[in-house]
Design goal:
The complex is a heterodimer. By secondary structure, chain A is an all-alpha fold. Chain A is about 65% helix and about 0% strand. In chain B, helix 2 packs parallel to helix 3. Helices cover about 45% and strands about 20% of the residues of chain B. By secondary structure, chain B is an alpha/beta fold. The chains are: A mainly alpha, B alpha/beta.
């Protein structure tokens, strides 16, 4: 017999039953088997603990979700009955009347989770409904003093809280201290920075572009799009001066945004500034600036564009031809005609022809002359440009 | 004597609400039920097409961009439906570009509203479309 059962069984029965009743002797096993066994046991216990944790966590989450759903239904019912319903009243200045906040206070909005759910629902109402309802939702937010709490949270160090609160105040149309907002527009966290910039544009009455003057890092295209959207939604707004913003030494993404704004607001005072930045070595920005002159229909820049044409690379020349077509003053017809006839490049001929057609009826005589006298290729290009179905696209 | 008439499901007008945004469908269905409409919800164009094939609706309110099958396809399906091709369709979407709106009307939409909607206007538009449909059916 290789082992004595009495030898390895402890007198005090403290070891698990498994070890006690297990026939092979523990002590007789090689060390690596013992280690493997211990590791397996630890792994097994770990798995069991993890499973238990997952089960407990999921049960708690399910319970929380059920509670949230019930709460969400209560909030919807309350908001529907007090804010949205009775459309007849909505038209008769009901938005100015004070709302009864007692039923909302009963929901327990002092609790952090309830508050966030409630505010989320309010924001959704403002996203989905407009007019008196949106105004009443904002009024309710103010009546429940949720803005005061949000303002307090805004000064917390936690970036997540800060960004959530900033977005909340922005969506509820609540103004924030301008100096602090300006500070946040350069925050290292991009969410905070983004919302601060949007708030700045939305609420600043004087010069909402002030923060752009301090930007040294590129603005992402998405951010550019969001900023542009906020500008579009600003009521009765006339664009403040772009001097110092459309400049060669400025960050190209900022200049690009300002060019788009100048075009959108038809700011002809920016034409001079745009002409000055055409000397930039950045070809993309130069093309964008020339295209902006075209979109602005800046006839003052026409002679300048023709004068720089010869010294520009091919891609910029094409943009100049398109811009001349958009300006539609009729002063560049001779230049366009020459380019159309003398150029060997197909793209140049195409763009010159499109530019001529765009200046119709001023260019009618030139087009007729070219249609009658031009060679087969030129004739085909002109016919293509004259096709209204192709131009419509 | 004051007589109260109970509104039975038979007299209620049926509306099919198609949108993948559960929050929006929840709010609008609550609103419409309060206005005595019977509302069915579909999450996308595919679900809506099968609901339309299975039963009659007095109005379809649809979003434009949804998974699987979008609003344009749904409009096509409704107009090609042999059983009831004249069901009015109202499009409620975030999209406000002219080309999309023109395409919707070209495909046979009866109304187009952009989100956020003005509730009184939204409800009166729905009632108008339902009344029009009632007159066509009569």
């Amino acid at each position: 017999m290789l082992y004595n059962r009495k030898m390895w069984l402890p007198k005090a029965a403290v070891l698990p039953v498994l070890l006690r009743t297990w026939p092979p002797a523990w002590n007789t096993y090689p060390v690596f088997i013992k280690i493997c066994f211990i590791i397996s046991m630890v792994a097994l216990i770990g798995i069991l603990l993890a499973m238990a944790d997952i089960y407990i966590w999921r049960t708690a989450k399910r319970r929380k979700d059920r509670k949230k759903l019930r709460l969400s239904e209560d909030i919807t019912r309350l908001l529907m009955n007090t804010v949205v319903m009775e459309p007849a009243k909505l038209n008769s200045g009901m938005s100015k009347a004070k709302l009864d906040t007692r039923p909302f206070l009963k929901l327990g909005i002092n609790d952090k989770d309830v508050r966030s759910l409630f505010v989320c629902e309010l924001i959704n109402y403002r996203n989905y409904f407009t007019g008196a309802i949106a105004a009443r939702v904002r009024q309710l937010y103010l009546d429940l003093s949720l803005d005061k709490e949000a303002r307090k949270l805004l000064y917390k160090k936690n970036w997540e809280t800060k960004s959530i609160v900033l977005s909340e105040l922005f969506k509820m149309d609540i103004e924030v201290d301008n100096a602090y907002l300006l500070e946040l527009t350069h925050h290292k966290n991009r969410y905070i920075r983004g919302f601060a910039r949007l708030s700045m544009i939305k609420f600043t009455k004087g010069d909402p572009l002030a923060f752009l003057r301090q930007i040294t890092e590129p603005i992402s295209q998405w951010e550019e799009f969001e900023i542009f959207l906020v500008f579009q939604q600003k009521e009765n707004y006339t664009l403040s001066s772009l001097e110092g913003l459309i400049a060669v030494d400025r960050e190209p993404s900022v200049v690009s945004l300002c060019l788009k704004l100048a075009v959108y607001f038809k700011d002809l005072s920016a034409v001079k500034l745009i002409m000055d930045i055409i000397q930039t070595p950045d070809l993309k920005l130069r093309a964008e600036a020339i295209a902006s002159l075209g979109k602005l229909e800046a006839s003052d820049a026409e002679a300048f564009l023709i004068s720089i044409y010869g010294a520009e690379p091919q891609e910029i020349r094409l943009v100049i031809l398109t811009a001349l077509g958009m300006i539609r003053s009729g002063n560049s017809l001779e230049f366009l005609e020459n380019e159309f006839i003398s150029s060997d490049d197909f793209e140049t001929k195409m763009n010159a022809s499109d530019a001529l057609i765009k200046q119709y009826p001023l260019s009618q005589n030139t087009i007729d002359k070219l249609m009658n006298n031009s060679a087969a290729l030129e004739h085909r290009i002109l016919s293509h440009s004259l096709n209204p179905l192709i131009n419509a696209l | 004597m004051h007589i109260k008439f109970k509104v039975t499901p038979r007299t209620m007008k049926k509306i099919l609400l198609v949108d993948n945004d559960a929050m929006f469908t929840g709010m609008v269905s609550y609103l419409l039920e309060k206005e005595q409409f019977h509302v069915s919800i579909a999450k996308d164009g595919k679900e809506a097409a099968s609901a339309l094939a299975a039963g009659h609706y007095d109005l379809v309110i649809s979003d434009m961009f949804m998974p699987y099958s979008n609003g344009f396809e749904l409009l096509n399906d409704v107009r090609k439906n042999k059983v009831n091709p004249y069901t009015p369709v109202m499009v409620v979407s975030d999209v406000s570009n002219e080309l999309s709106i023109a395409n919707c009307f070209r495909l046979g939409a009866d109304a187009y509203l952009t989100k956020p909607v003005n509730v009184p206007g939204f409800l009166s538009e729905i009632k108008n479309l339902v009344i029009q449909q009632e007159n066509v059916a009569a």
